[in-house]
Amino acid sequence: MSDGEGLDYASSGVDIDLEAASVASLIGALSKSVRNSGTPGAPVDLPGGFGGLVEFGDNLLALATDGVGSKLQIANELEQLAGVGIDCMAMNVNDLLCVGAEPIAFVDYVAIPKPDPAVHAALGASLSSAAARARVTLAGGETASLPGIVKELDLSGTALGWLPKDEAITGENMQAGDALIGLPSSGIHSNGFSLVRAVLEKTGADIRNPAPFSVDENRIERFTEGEVTLGEVLLNPTRIYCDPVYDLIATCRGGEGPCESEQIKGIAHITGGGLSNLLRLHDTLGYHISNPMNTLPEFDWIAQMGEVNEREMARTFNLGMGMVVIVDGSASEAVTAWLESRMSGCQAVGEVVDHGRKVTHINPNISFDHY
User: Does the N-terminal peptide bond of residue 244 adopt cis geometry, omega within 30 degrees of 0?
Assistant: First the structure.
């Protein structure tokens, strides 16, 4: 638990440190690839783990797989599935961007207690909208009716991308003084919902009622009339960053962008783990957040109502910054302006520092030394 009677992610059922240890155990037990170097499908070593890379002739293929998570429980309760396909797509294609790949195709996996044509129609419409935003082909999928295993709808998927060989963005060439540029999130995205649901249970808040805080209606994808409801805020779809992040990568590779291609040093998707995701990019360097983006009101409400401390909030949620692009310090101003012209709210938030592998913050209560 956090200070006093406050909530934290572990007490709500998700222990990030235990998950990391479990994933490490899984990876340690995996056997090496049977594909030999120089052949299609041979593995390419990639630090960070935002996406997997394999060889494919003169190019590399990138893959990522993820799901919507317990956000689906709120969507199921409200019978509002319009955003969940977007969430699923975003959690995958945004990871591909972090290795410098262009997402090109997506397949989904739907697990349900029993078939429901209305549910499948809603999911299909949501996934079609997601594919348009991500500019990918829906290449197929699978639906499984599992009445003895699943109690309600679950949705996951896998995204495929590509990039030229030797142009992966890995973070290994970062150096002290490189700039961190933050891109705004659309809300909670698809992380931390076990803690969100714990706050709802603790407060007794009704997700069908108007949000108990001020909301900019223009950033919420509405599904009711009248005042913006708490449910609409919580279900606001995860932002897909193909535009402008892949467009930045592509224009720089083509020599027409705001910086040289090699000046884009690293990209981090701020998902579960919050700011500690930055630590996935380099083995020795650290990061200092000196100019954090403003938090969104839903995060302030969660922190207040759940009595969640500042470090736990920054460890669990994106707090208003969904992605970070790391560029050479000399290119910071030009890249920030380029991104801001395409996505309002982008800003320089800090820099890479040589103070050991840790994230520090202008708020001294927030720091991380492991992912």
Answer: yes
